[in-house]
Amino acid sequence: MLYTEMVVADAILHGDLERHLGFSNAEHPIALQLGGSEPDKLIKSAIEGEKWGYDEINLNVGCPSDRVQSGSFGACLMQEPELVGECVDAMKQVVNIPISVKCRIGVDDQDIEPALDNLADAVFSKGCDALWVHARKAWLEGLSPKQNRDIPPLDYNRVYRLKQKSPDKFIGINGGIETLDQAQTHLQYVDGVMLGRAAYHNPEILRYVDNELFGADKNPIDYEELCNAMMDYTARHISAGGRVNHITRHMLGLFKGRAGSRRYRQVMTVDSCKPDADEQVIQQAFAAVLDNDLMLSA
Fold this sequence. Notes:
The protein has helices at residues 9-14, 17-21, 39-51, 66-70, 81-92, 112-124, 145-148, 156-165, 180-186, 197-201, 209-214, 223-239, 244-248, 261-269, 280-297, and strands at 2-3, 7-8, 30-35, 56-61, 99-107, 130-138, 171-174, 192-194. It is of the alpha/beta class. It has two domains: 2-175, Alpha-Beta Barrel (TIM Barrel), CATH 3.20.20.70; 223-297, Four Helix Bundle (Hemerythrin (Met), subunit A) (Up-down Bundle), CATH 1.20.120. Strands 1, 2, 3, 4, 5, 6, 7 and 8 form an eight-stranded parallel β-sheet that branches. Helix 5 packs parallel to helix 6.
């Protein structure tokens, strides 16, 4: 399941809906992640999300950025579990799709035992369908958002303990998970695993996920098939008024560590920005790696 980046409720209420909520049918199942702390605004945003076809609404209670703090939502809501519960309850009343929450194990000097338990109790008592836990604290003072993704130590056992306490609730884990083997280990203790930067920077790890985690017996997509699919996707994006680099900038990690990957990234970053660039750029970039593979195997 794909989760969007956080979209602030005010942006949905006052901004360009196509820009904030538009997505491709190929992305199903997909959850809309909202940022906000005012139930009335979240109600309207959740309704819009359901209208646009999202499969789930996710409330972010984990983002530590300054902008989020100034808006009194994100990770600072770990300090207001009852308010988070009210937000979940408000959205549950108006949409028919699942409502989930993504949080940290605590913030600043909170004791992570009661902090996470209190948040979980507050949201599950209001019908929350799933709780995703980034297994680090967030430090609202002294660390940047980037530092908050790496510096606070991971405590997976705290998430495992929450699952033990709530065996009938869906508890998912996030943070520092980089391989499918690691995911398999976590799935012995929790219900789901969320990959963020690992999947983005090295999407190759997802190539066998259907086989290894879901028991699929089909062959993984091959690179020629992937290239053609992304060219078609990009052509549709261009015809709708978009640019090639809107797509290619998110594909840079695809051949990480492979021979030809440097040339691949060069084509994807430089050639895709040229005024006359079209979907053929993707084919040229793939060729930098795949032609190299053919030479090595000859």
